[in-house]
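Progress report, Aim 2. The chain analyzed during this reporting quarter is listed below.
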Amino acid sequence: MAIVATNLKKGQCISYKGETGLVLNIEHRTPGKGNALIMATIRSFQSGKTKDIRFASGDKVDTVNADRQTLEFSYSDPTGVHFMDPNTFETVTLPEDLMEEYKEYLTDALPVEVLFIEEKPVSVDFPATVELLVTQSPEGLKGDTANNPTKEAEMETGLRVQVPLFIKEGDRLKIDTRTGKYVSRV
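Predicted structure tokens for the chain:
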């Protein structure tokens, strides 16, 4: 289905010049003279790269039917990463390469939002933070409080994070999935 570029919205999936992508940002620009322009920041599903595309206000853009589903992590094996649909209890398997940067944040029943285009998974949106259990954390040195010192702790998923000295084994921590850094103790 084609729409006029001025009707584009953030979060829509479009097809443009043979590529399919997700609209990350839209900016309407009106120059001093001439027609209005639409600057769209698009992340390509084929290359994974982000690029800015300029549309004239009257340009037609093809939208792509997309479906977003919230799935819960079940387990991972050599065939892929397996999630359960909490509504139908069906198992959905996602390819390893789609989950590569988030593998160390996966815990039982973690909800993630998966974008499907033509019933094929193309992107995964993780929560901004996850709660993980500390499995290994060496003792902090007493009296070492200058300059906000940290130590390395290992989480239940194998992720290694720099944490304050007071963190010990068995603590639950909130970790930022975008940066991989410690946020707080839970």
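The mean pLDDT is 87. Helices lie at 96-99. These observations will guide the mutagenesis work planned for the next reporting period.
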